[in-house]
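pinned: reference chain
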Amino acid sequence: MTTVSDVYSPVKNPNRFYIGGEWVNPSSDAMFDVLDSNTEELYFRVSEAQAADMDRAIDSAKTAFDSGPWPRLSHIQRAEYLRALSAELQSRVDVLSDIWPRESGVLHSVAVNRSVADSQILDYYADLAADYPWEEEVTPKDGGFGLLVREPVGVVGAIIPWNGPLSLALWKLSPALLAGCTAVLKASPEAPGAAYIIAEAAEAVGLPAGVLNVLTADREVSERLVRDPRIDKIAFTGSTLAGRKIASTLGERIGRYTLELGGKSAAVILDDADLEQAAAVISGAECFLSGQVCSSLTRLVISRRRHDEFVEILSGMFSQTKVGNAFDADTQMGPLAMERQRDRVEGFIASGISEGAKLVTGGGRPKHLDRGFFIEPTVFANVDNSQTIAREEIFGPVLSVIAAADESDAVKIANDTIYGLNASVFTKDLDRAREVAGQLRSGTVGHNSFRTDFGIAFGGFKQSGIGREGGMEGLLPYLESKTVILQGAPAAYKSPAKG
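pinned: its C-alpha cells
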C-alpha cells in the first residue's frame, strides 16, 4: 500500500491541516490523490477532511474572531501582516509555478509571472489600510454626534475551485483579513497545493492563531462550512449549480455571501471590426488555462454576411495552436485539469455535432499525445443560440460562432443567456463600442480584446454571481456598516479627516 511518505509532495505537510496556527493531524487516514494533468501520474496526496476536522477549523476561526487579537488590531497593523504574507508567497514562486501547471494545466511560463502578480494582491489591499473610510463622522438629523463605522463581517468560509486556486484564494482572503475577519479556507481536492503554500506562509509570518485555517474537503464536508451558524459569510467561486445551493442554504439563516459563478460570455463582433485582430485575440485568450476560465469569450456573435469569413480566419488560427506539456517552452496550450473535465468537454463536443452545429476544426484528442488530459482547440460554426454548446458552460477550448441578422440581433443573442459574467465588443468605433457595452447585461465588457480587471471589480450579472471581487468593491462584502449615534462627540474621538 502506498502511503503519503512514499509519494513526493511539493508541500511540507500534506498529511495535516493548518488549524489554530498549527499543523494538526487529521481525524482519519483518508487521502485525496492529486494527479499531474500532463502525465496522468500521481503528483502528491493530501489528507481528506472529515466532519470533525471541519468543525475544528470553524471553531478555531470563531474563537480567533471572538477573543483573539486579530479583529482588535488596527488596519495598519493587519496590513503589515498582509505585506509579510505577500513577501513569503513571492519567495515560494518556484513551487507555486510548479504546482499550478501540474494540477490545472496552465503553462509554466504563465504560472511563474502570475504567481508573483497574485501574491501582490495582498499588497494591494494592504495599501488601502491607511486611506479607506473605515469610520466616517456624520450629522444625525435630530442632532448629536454620529459615526458610520465599517466593521468586519465576522468569520469567513472561503471555498475555491481548481482552475486558479492561488489568485481566487487571495482575492477572498486579502480583503477579509484586512477587514479584521478570520477565515477557513477550503481547498479543492483536485488542486490543493496553493492553499497549503498559503498556510505555510501564514505560519512563517506568525499570523495569530486561528486567523487562517486551511483544509481540503469534498462537497459533503464542505457543506458543513456553509450550514454552520458560526460562519458569518461564504465567499465562493465555482459552478452556478453549486452557487444556487449555497445561496439557498445561507438564505435559511440569512448568512452573507459572495458568489462568483459560471459564464457563457459573448464577443459581439460588429461589421466594421478587424476580423484578423478579433480572431487572434479570441483564439489566443482561449489558450490560457486551456479554456478553463469562467470569463472566456466562447460565444462569438457576428453578422450573417461576415460569418463564413470569420470562421475561416478563426479556425485557421486556432487550429495552429501547439498543444502539449505545460512545461515545454514551445507549447501554446496545455492539458485540461483532469479526466473528468476532459470527458465533460468531449460530451459537449458530441452534443454540438448531434444538434447540428458545424464542427470546423478540432473536436478530438491530439494524436501526438498519448498521456495527459489533452483536447484539441475546437471551433463550431453555424451554431444556434438554443443549442447546448451555446447555452451551457463547457470550460474548455471550444468556441461557438453564431450568426446574427444585424447589430440589434447580435446584442439580443448575446444577452439571451442565464449568465452575465463577461463580454466584449469588437469595432473600430469607440462611440459604438460604448453604446453596445451599455446594452450588454454583463459584469465586465471589454473592447477589441479579452478584458477583465480585478483591480477595478469582477463579478457577474444574472446567474453568474452576486457581489464583486477585486478593487475597493471587493472589500465591501467583508464589512458590516454600523450607525453609532451619541449625544455628543466622545472626548477621545479624533476625526479621521484630522489624522
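why pinned: Residues 265-447 form a domain with the Aldehyde Dehydrogenase; Chain A, domain 2 fold (CATH 3.40.309.10). The two ends are 64 Å apart (CA to CA).
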